Amino acid sequence: MGRAHLIQSKTGRPTKRTPEVERTIRAALGKGLSYQTAAELAGILPDTLRRWRRDDTDFSADCKRAKAEGKANIVGKLIENANSGNVTAQIFWLKTRTEEFREHRPDDTEDVQRRQVEFVRRGAGASN
Are 49 and 38 contacting, i.e. CB atoms less than 8 angstroms apart? Predict the structure, then answer.
């Protein structure tokens, strides 16, 4: 379906889908927020947002693009912080992006954290 579906509702109560609600959703997704949070900020149920995305391929593509922009922005900030020497950001990046530093068992947490700190102190985390 296209944007013609935007305001018109054939039966039942009037739709909450307006250009303003769509902008709110895209802005929230563009900040890296979840679909559920975007729906809540827009004053709709998450199921409603899922239905709109399912039924309108243009809107779905807009949402996916906004979500990708939000992720890219957050990853960019994380990398910026890691490269500027923020040890917490470096450890987070290592935990989420490298198999060697992922925590697999609760009993080896201290060992993993020790290896992460040693790795960061050697300076290898700040160059990536």
Answer: yes
CA distance 37 to 42: 9
Residues ≥6 apart with Cβ < 8 Å to 99: none
Note the pLDDT tens digit of each residue in 37-93: 999 999 999 999 999 999 999 999 999 999 999 999 998 999 999 999 999 998 888
- DSSP state for residue 11 in the 8-state scheme: S
For residue 60, the SS3 value is helix
Query: Rounded to whole angstroms, how far apart are CA atoms 72 and 115?
Result: 28
Separation of alpha carbons 47 and 103, rounded Å = 34
pTM here is 0.65
Q: Is 105 helix (H, G, I), strand (E, B) or coil?
A: coil
Mean pLDDT of the chain: 83
Q: What percent of the chain has pLDDT over 70?
A: 77
103/74 Cα distance (integer angstroms): 23
From 70, 83, 80, select the one nearest 30 (Cα to Cα): 70
